[in-house]
Amino acid sequence: MDKMQLDKHIYQQYDSELEALQTKLLAMGGIVEQQIKDAVNSIENADSDLAEKVIRIEDDVDLREVALDHDCTTVLACRQPTASDLRLVLAVAKMTRDLERMGDEAQKIAKMAISLNQSGAAPGGYEEVRHMGTLVQNMVHNALDAFARFDAIRAVEVARADKQVDREYKSAMRELMTYMMEDPRSISRAMNILWTLRSLERIGDHTRNIAEHIIFLVKGMDVRHKSVSDIESKVKGD
After folding, report:
1. Does the pLDDT of residue 7 top 60, yes or no?
2. Helix 48-79 to helix 83-119 angle, to the nearest 10 degrees?
3. How far is CA 4 from CA 9, 12, 90, 217, in A?
4. Distance between CA atoms of 109 and 116, rounded to whole angstroms?
5. What is the third-level CATH fold of 3-237?
6. C-alpha separations of 186 from 19, 48, 160, 192, 193 in Å
7. Tell me, what's the pLDDT at 1?
8. What number of CA atoms fall less than 13 Å from residue 79's CA on the CB side?
9. Which of 80, 90, 132, 207 is the most buried (most CB within 10 A)?
10. What's the CA angle centered on 199, arms 111 and 26, to 5 degrees?
11. Helix (H), strand (E), coil (C) string for the chain
């Protein structure tokens, strides 16, 4: 095999390794996306069996995180990527951690569902859970789509959606505080809904992180701690 053929073979193998990182991240993202959906449904429908499924799946998510971390480390050590390839590996490593933490929050929601089924329904907050759950699920779906397409504009839209999730969370908190003041006996059950809403808000935060990692990957810009308007102007002005 001459040098040209060897180089071609090495580059093809390298490209395959980078593509494998993307594929594995999207597969992990798909599992977490379904995990979040099932967790919210387990609250809405008082479905302990579905909640137990969400909890079991978290083990698979953890294993995928460890495997992807190993793959990223291997590529960094063996290939010493530069420029956009380096950004891809770093972005995948960071997004993997955010996805794992989103899975942790989905597991917490599932545990709240089981607790509510055992102690009785909360006095309110289910509509807020449904609404916030839908917003967050859309964010996660759009973030994964933005990564698959290397679409920085779509990632900006995901970051903007997190602001709406934060507003909904604050509004829902006020509603539940009212329920608890009116009926102190409902406090323990209402707290389960409060923690559920908090987990959804945290999933929104992690999804925004993923959007920022995508912008870094596509544009080479570090937009952490920037306002959405600043991020949008930087992305569109590039």
Report:
1. no
2. 160
3. 9, 12, 29, 30
4. 11
5. Methane Monooxygenase Hydroxylase; Chain G, domain 1 (1.20.58)
6. 51, 21, 34, 10, 11
7. 42
8. 22
9. 207
10. 95
11. CCHHHHHHHHHHHHHHHHHHHHHHHHHHHHHHHHHHHHHHHHHHCCCHHHHHHHHHHHHHHHHHHHHHHHHHHHHHHHHCCCHHHHHHHHHHHHHHHHHHHHHHHHHHHHHHHHHHHHHCCCCCCHHHHHHHHHHHHHHHHHHHHHHHHCCHHHHHHHHHHHHHHHHHHHHHHHHHHHHHHHCHHHHHHHHHHHHHHHHHHHHHHHHHHHHHHHHHHHHCCCCCCCCHHHHHHHHHHC
Both structure tokens of 36: 């979040």
pLDDT digits (tens, 9 = 90+) for 105-164: 999 999 999 998 888 777 778 889 999 999 999 999 999 999 999 999 999 999 999 999
* Non-local CB neighbours of 150 within 8 Å, separated by 6+ positions: 214, 217, 218
**In the block, which residue shows the tokens 């390794």?**
17
- Provide the residue ranges of all domains of the chain, joining segments of one domain with +: 3-237
User: CA-CA distance, 133 to 169, in Å (whole number)?
Assistant: 11
The span from the CA of 231 to the CA of 218, in Å, is 13
Contact 112, 193 (CB under 8 A): yes
